[in-house]
Structures are given as C-alpha cells and as structure tokens.
Sequence to fold (428 residues):
Amino acid sequence: MMPVAGGGWPNEADVFARYESRVRSYSRQFPLVFARAVGSKLWDSSGRCYLDFLAGAGALSYGHNNAVLKQALIDYIAQDGVATSLDLYTVAKAKFLQTLQSTILAPRGLEYVVQFTGPTGTNAVEAALKIARRATRRTDIVFFKGGFHGVSLGSLAVTGNKVCREGAGVRLGNSLEAPYVGDLGPGGDTIAFLEELFSKRSAMGSLPAGVIVECIQGEGGLRAASVEWLRRLEAACRRWGVVLIVDDIQAGCGRAGTFFSFEAAGITPDVITLSKSLSGYGIPISLVLLQRSVDLWQPGQHNGTFRGNNHAFVTATAMINEYWRTPAFSNSVLDKAVYLRKRLQALLDRFAPHIAEITGRGMMLGVVCANADFAARVSARAFQLGLIVERSGLEDEVIKCMMPLVTPYSELDEGIDILHEAFAKESP
Fold:
C-alpha cells in the first residue's frame, strides 16, 4: 500500500474507492471491510459480527472455512500436493473423478464424462454452448426470460439481465429468448410456446442448437420450474433434436435439497454445468458434465490455464465424502427448507400487501416485495441490524435468502427475526 498524498495512509474504505474499478457491486450494498468468516458468520475489521445470507452468491453452501474441508486442504498443502496442473493427470483429480462417479453420478443412474473448464461458471457455460453447436451443427441457443448464465460474451448472449447485456459493447447474437414459467400469465403454456418456436424454426431450416435453463432462477428472482414443466421441456428437446443444457451453477450442489436441482423431475440433461459451491470451500472450480454422445471435442479445443485447480479437487472430494455418502444431509436440507418457508410465510402473513409471495424451492427461497424500492430499503435495514441479504428478480424486487446449507436452526431463526424487524421498520 502506498502513502496518500500529503503523507499518512488511506483508511480501509479509501483503498477500494481509490484503487478498485467502478464495476464493483456487492461492496456498494455492504460497504464494510470484512476480516474473518466461519460458518454462516462474517466479522468486519472492527469486530462486529454479521449473519451471512448471501454466502458468496451461492458459492459457500457449506459455510465459510468449513472445518472438515479446511483440514483436508491444509493436509494436502502440507504434503506439497500439486497445486495447478492444466489437464495433466494428478492424484487429486483422480480421487475427485472417482468420488463424483461413485457417490453422485452412479447412484442417480447418470452417465456423463467430465470436462474441466476455466475456474468460473461462465467458462463452463461457454463450453456448453459450444458443444451444443458442435453436436447439432446449428447456431442459436434458446434461453429463458430472467435467466442468468454469465457475463463473458457467449454466456451474456443467453443472459437476460439488461444492465449486464448493455456492458457487452457489441451486438449479442445467436440466441433466442423464450418465456419462463409464469411469464405468459395464469394459464399460459410456455412449453407450447417453445414447441411452436421449434416448429417455425424447423420450417425455416433453422432449428436452435440448444436450450439452456436454470431449474430455479437465481438472479431472475428465485422462480422455480415445476416437475411437469421440466419433463415437458426435456420431451420437447428430444422431439426436435435440440440439446438440453441445465445450468446448475447456483441451484446445484445441494441448494435444492438434492445434489442436482432437476432430480425430482427425473430428467437427464444432455449437458450440465457446475461451479460455485462445487469445491465446498469457495475455491474456484468449474466443470461440464457431458453425455458421451455430445462429447465431440478435439483435444485442447476448449481449455483454460486453471482447469487443473487441485486445491479445489481436494475440497470438492472432501465435501462429497462428508455430506453425500448417505441421504442424511440431503434430508436435513429439505427439512430446513420446510422450516425456512414457514418462517418466511409468517412474514407474508404479517406484511402483505408489501410482500406479494414467497418464491423458490429448497434452501433457495425469496421474498417477493411489492416493488424494488421497498425491497432495497428492507435489505439495507437488515444490513444495519446485522444481516447480509441480497436482492434479485427482474426489477430487484426479491429479497433472496441464500444462507449456507449448514446454517444451524438457531441462526436461521436469528436471520429471519432480523428480516421481520427490518420489514417492520420499513413498512408504512
């Protein structure tokens, strides 16, 4: 750190204002310097504790500095384990692949090969879009209103967020937007809309290459697709020869109560993208699960320097072994989800019409406020009271509860109590 003009040192907040780009966002909503984190709690540099219902935008489903995963990582580093390896074979990668296969894929009757991409979710999405195009020799990808799949150019073309799209600087193409669940109003059939789109495009000789979908929209406002809707979506894609991509970057790895967010529907996507909480520890890792029929890459055709993040392989393996060898953890998440929804329903009962509904599934739930301004005031007030909770939705009108899955009931209650107080203080 350099001295400021005139001598002395900048305070902590000044450092970021002076030296970090204007693109920063979360720090504008929560303008503190954080120093320590454990489980569902964050401490700022002054020592004040906050409950974290943001959890790295879903990247910390197993909590900050999870003790089991931390010990596995410490042990690996102490043994001088390989840190980064491109796509070279390593012991850490072999253990991860074997564990993913034996504990996650095989018990669910899923047969996929694993492609390691660069460390971010958007890189996995880029790979998924490419492979859909390569498999079908077609170009366009259908995405759904409210969908968020990343901000690199290919992923951004299938992301609905207007502000992000405006940042591209170029025209975004080779994509088609379709209505998501509920977008056509009561009784509106969005799968019938999609089938009609496929039929028209087929008649013109321009069927899409693929469809990319979030089973629970994260940034789109915690809107959840039903089992029936997902099954019909899969059937439509099969009927028209369109590659089905499920983006499970935020909703996967346990957030829905099952490891994959689509499990209840019993569908088998052609391609699945995973990232965020896959490492269990917040260490960057991203991958694509491919049906063998679409694994059509030439060696090195999609790559990334940090696709061999062995520290992430270690913690991901530990996460799967610790939480997914039996149904106990999944059941605990589903039980917490029921409890959390009841607590949020009490908010709706008390503060309607300022709250329109409770939305989402599993431990990916949101409070839909009457308008974005009210949601912003409640989120800001909750932060003052010691709770970090973000907003999402088409207008940022949804208060998004994304606490770690390992959050104890006492801290769930504490966080929801803070939300109650925040709503009470901000309600007219």
